[in-house]
Design a protein that fits this description.
309 residues, alpha/beta, Rossmann fold, 8-stranded mixed beta sheet, 11 helices
Amino acid sequence: MEEADWQFPLVIADTQPMTISATMRSMFTGTLIVIGLLVAAFVGMCLLLYLQQDKYLFAPQRTDVALGQEWLQRRVEIDAAGHKVEGWWAEDPAADNRAVVLYFGGNSEDVLSTAITSDRIGARKLLVTNYRGYGKTPGSPSQVGLFEDALAVYDYAARQPGVLPSDIVVMGRSLGSGVATWIAANRPVKAAILITPYDSILSVASRHYSVFPVRMLLKHPFPSQELAARATAPALMIAAERDIVIPPIHTERLAKAWAGPVETHLLPGMAHNNVEQNPDYFPLINAFLRRVSPAAGLSPGDGPGASAP
């Protein structure tokens, strides 16, 4: 009996730790599996964002057939890095300014829709162009490609009869604001007009995808804030109060970084895609063009609507 009493607690003492250890190992293994699945899912989402980012950033549009026919006689093809950039000229000989506006559109914009508003923009000349992959401009869009083509468009415009670098105003909307900023930082321009502009696509993307390592994933950062430090021309920046695509804070940051004088306007009640519907939108642009590039015989304050805000 004494021997049995001595062995019994030894068996209990030996088996109890084994039961606890197996449970802990099972829980630990399950936790590792869950963590592994979460990591795999996160990495998969990162990979998806990396591979699909061009579709999110660029949405090439075909030119409206009816507009294309209507503007066929004003269509031009501009030599750029081994291919042709498609564009259209609009002119207003009665304009009260000398501005030659080079316009760069948004990521899903048919730029002819802006060309048909040329009478409301009021520039002496307006040139709109399609990015690579848009309309009949061949290729695939990218930051590098858009920047290369933009300089080619500028150089082409500056060679045209009656056009001086001191007449050229670059204008960009949304995505195109970064292209216009690139030109303003690398070529002499009279001024820049930036509609719903950003400090960088990296900054905007980081806001929308804050849980992801956007800096590591993004191929097209469009660093407007960095470029702005070299842009000495006057700038008009127009932001939309209810813009959830490029919130106005990004325009504010760009304005602070711009090396030249900046005029900023926040249009109340407007969103990213309808900012041009605000009644002050075109008057602001008209007044700015008159100030920076008045027609011969006019001072910057002359002309109809000169008192527009």
